[in-house]
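Entry for the shared binder. Reason: the reviewer on the internal report wants the predicted structure included alongside the sequence.
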Amino acid sequence: DRAADVLARANGRIARRDGVRVEEARQGDVTYYQVTYNNTTLPLSAMHYQKLRRLYSIHNAQTDPRSDLFPRRLFCMLQRYITFIGVDPFSEHCQGGNMHAAAPESVFLFLHQRLGVRMEFFASPLNCYFRRFCSAFPDTDRFFGSMGSVFDFFPRAGSFEVGPPYTEEVMLECAKHLHKLLVRAESEDRPMSFVVFVPDWSSPPADALAFMESEECAPFLKLNTVAKGSQHVYISGCQHMFDKGDAGERYYKPPHGTRAYVLQTAAFVRENGSAVSESFEDDLLDKMAGRAGDG
């Protein structure tokens, strides 16, 4: 058994550190990984395992060059989010997963190409698109690229995607935080841009939506549009557990509309021209519908 274990490790099928085992497994013709500590086993899709290994290597090249601590840190991060989302990792259903959903890849690629977006304000190691992001749990997430809580993050310039959780209090605090950052950037003549995705709770309008459409935000508001319910897609919040490369399971169509706001300083508009145009709006809605195209 010991010889078999050594051989399996050499073939990359098992990583064992600090009592945590990472093992390759199969379900039918689908390969995935199991991350186990004591009697707790957590499933992880092969795609997300490779993604997390890359993120860990990028952000820990100096402090953990051999990735000795990767299995332990991986387990802690996975267990945190499974507990936070409130899902049974071996259930066929994904109750609670929508709170961890994300925009489709086509949206992030489009925003990167058109507005130079390189960072997300609300994400996790599991659903992030970029290698840098803000997240709820810096203690477990920083090893995978988290910059900490968005409310403790004060950039002076840059272009960001913002998708807060659909909680009215958090959405409002987020809108106020963005406004403060924009006001400071404007006073310093620095380029700053936010693309904000929130639910279309407009009848009556949620406080966050009302604030972003208020006179206070008017100098920065360049776009206010909505993707209608059932006409756009999100990536499932349980993608990291159940993703098998099947688009029918990876994506879902929310029944509610999603409102998109673009907020920018004058310096950003000056340096990037009229990037937010009617064609930009049409293209964004197209990407939200899950149609990739060429950006």
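Summary line for the report: Residues 91 and 242 are 10 Å apart (CA to CA).
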